[in-house]
Amino acid sequence: MPHGAPAFDALCQEIVERQVADPLAPVAVIVPSRRVGAALRHRLAKATGARGSKGAANVRFVTLSDVAEDLAGVGCRAGGRFKATRSSLGAAARAGLGSNPGFLAAVAEDPSTEEEVVALYEDLRQLGEGAFDLLRSRGQKQSDLAAICQTMRGHLERRCFDDADLFEGAIAALDQAGLPGDFGLNLIVQLPERARPAERRLIAALAQRSDLVVHLGVLGDESADAPIRSIGQALVAEGLSGVSVLPGPKDVCLGPDEPVFVGERIEARDAESEVLAAARVVLDSLERGIPADRIAVLYSSRSTYHQLVADVFDSAGVTWSGPSATRVIETATACTLTGFVRLAVSGLQRDGLLAWLRSAPLRDGRGELLPVGSFELVSRRAGIVGGDAAEWRRHLDSLAAELRRGHEEEPGRWICFRRASGRGAIGGRLASTHVGVC
After folding, report:
1. How many Cα atoms within 13 Å fall on the side-chain side of residue 362?
2. Does residue 198 sit in the same domain as residue 92?
3. How far is CA 285 from CA 5, 15, 129, 291, 435, in A?
4. 31 and 119, same domain (yes or no)
5. Are residues 9 and 113 in the same domain?
6. Rounded mean pLDDT, 202-228
7. CB atoms within 10 A of CB 153
8. DSSP, res 247
9. Which one has a higher pLDDT value, 203 or 348?
10. Which residues face 215 on adjacent strands?
11. Are 56 and 174 part of one and the same domain?
12. Of 223-232, 235-244, 256-265, 313-322, where does mean pLDDT reach its minimum?
């Protein structure tokens, strides 16, 4: 996060004040995301407190959704309901567009229309139950959109619940039973990045039943800080009094008309040379004592630089923070699973199957690596091009018979194979051997 040391120091000071009488008093820090929570937890564990000790005990880092889940998750799942997913929201949007598309009839089947309708539905749900009627009163097109969203609601509410249901259920649970004891009465909302209406109502409900403070982080730039200050104003309107604005780092506050000076300009012949030069600048800066959280590497094209920057900094042993250069779909496990699905759709074509087997170090039931090279030799010798499992088995059985006859006539000259029982995917587990057929 760009707020740096001032925000972290304010958090540490707040925790110390909450635990001054009882070092084991529970404190819950509500963070924007679990990734931020993990980073703060690790940093807090290394921080030295006022008494010279490191870390803090009984401090939880949770998101607001985690709090709502703890309070209302069981109730929302009553009757077999489940959390609405992107797939279920998309299906409901298609149902709404199909039954009453209104002015969207010409583009009702366009995927982007579905995405926009889902986004509108989620925004309206955050505003509360009266949002559909309010939109309907604004005109004919707005009425068409409200009808689509109302249809979506009818499809979803019987079997799904969304964030708005979860937050409203959490507020109802607080009204009935109060705040659970494992949360304690010490709540800190640290640097919220957004506060939708349902989220603001839940924060206000928590503030009524605990000692809750909100830390807002600003940078000192009016336009950049406007969304954060609007969050503070909205929370104050909900009745919160413990909203404080933390000072931003002084060295990052540039006015809108203040020029940015380039300290050094480096020319490089290609992208790799650029990244290597940037890595040297970063290492030099670290050696001069510049804090790592005050250093940033920016680039203009993700496709050109993203993976390259990650590889170079990893090779240099520089710990960096940023979006992962490898998407989940690009990992070996994901490629193996998606390749398996493609095989199920396209059939067991020899080239496709062997390419899939090479995509990851696959092992058999005994933990041994599959000998893909032997599979390729034997399947080529068997004359297999494609087909289903029965077709593969027929060709392999024919080759086995041929090899048995050849082995009986000229022992030791034939490459034979072994077919282990229970392997149906390619007609058996094949392995090169010079002793015959097992």
Report:
1. 19
2. no
3. 18, 32, 54, 8, 65
4. no
5. no
6. 88
7. 18
8. P
9. 203
10. 190, 244
11. yes
12. 256-265
In 3D, which of 214, 273, 267 has the Cα closest to residue 241?
214
Here the tokens at position 91 are: 């299906």
Provide the residue range defining the domain that includes 401: 332-433
Considering its fold, how many domains does the chain have in total? Answer: 4
Residue 149: partners with Cβ closer than 8 Å, 6 or more residues away: 96, 117, 120, 121, 124, 132, 135
Q: Tell me if 17 is assigned to some domain.
A: yes
Cut 0.85: pTM above it:
no
Tokens 């009094």: give the residue: 241
- Bridge-based pairing of strands 416-417 and 432-433 is antiparallel
CA 193, 197, 202, 203 dihedral sign is positive
Question: Which of 16, 4, 10, 21 has the alpha carbon at shortest distance from 59?
Answer: 16
Contacts of residues 288-292 at CB distance under 8 Å and 24 or more positions apart, as own/partner, are 291/5, 292/319
Tokens of residue 383, six digits: 């004359």
Amino acid letter for position 134: L
Supply 14's token pair: 């707040």
Examine the fold and report which residue of 125, 158, 191 is the final residue of a domain before the chain moves on: 158
Asked if the structure places residue 262 within a domain, the reply is no
Same domain, 364 and 397: yes
Half-sphere exposure of 384 (CA within 13 A, CB side): 32
